[in-house]
Amino acid sequence: MKKLSVLFAAVMMFLAVGVAKAQKVASLDVAAVLNLMPEKKKADDQLTALSNSKRAEIEKQMQAAQAKLKQYSEEAPKQTQQVNEQRNAELQKLQQQIEQMQMAAQKDIAEKTDAAFLPIEKKFNDAVNRAAKSNGWDFVFDANASGLIYKGGPDATAAVKKELGL
Predict the structure, then answer these.
(1) pLDDT of res. 100
(2) 27 phi and psi, to 5 degrees?
(3) Where are the alpha helices (DSSP H) in 76-149?
(4) Which first-to-last residue range defines the signal peptide (predicted)?
(5) Fewer CB within 10 Å: N-end or C-end of the chain?
(6) Does domain 24-164 have CATH number 3.40.640.10?
(7) Mean pLDDT over all residues of the chain?
């Protein structure tokens, strides 16, 4: 019985090594491929423009609020307590509006980013799948990932670029 257990363990180890050797692994420089895609460049440019316009709107509102704060601070000694309290409430409301604008801008940019990159990601993944199938790779790892310890297998970057027509 003991010999049978040892024999079974040896057969299992042999099969495991055989299966491991049968699997083909490749690495891929994901960032390099994505940066070559014209769709990504266009999406990056559009998102940068959107971000800059949102930032400009918020800065404009902040400058207006700062101007009011300066004006109200200078006039405060000449005003009644009631007027100063109303002005403080107005300034707090402006601050809340600016914070809401910032949150809305972040949400809008995040939604636009997701919408812009979804088709790019799909196209990229489809190209990786086609390249892996045509080259017989079982696994393709990102060459830039910190979890990759050894990069000795074939490089899939050229094959994926070919699938994307880059």
Answers:
(1) 96
(2) -115, 160
(3) 81-135
(4) 1-22
(5) N
(6) no
(7) 85
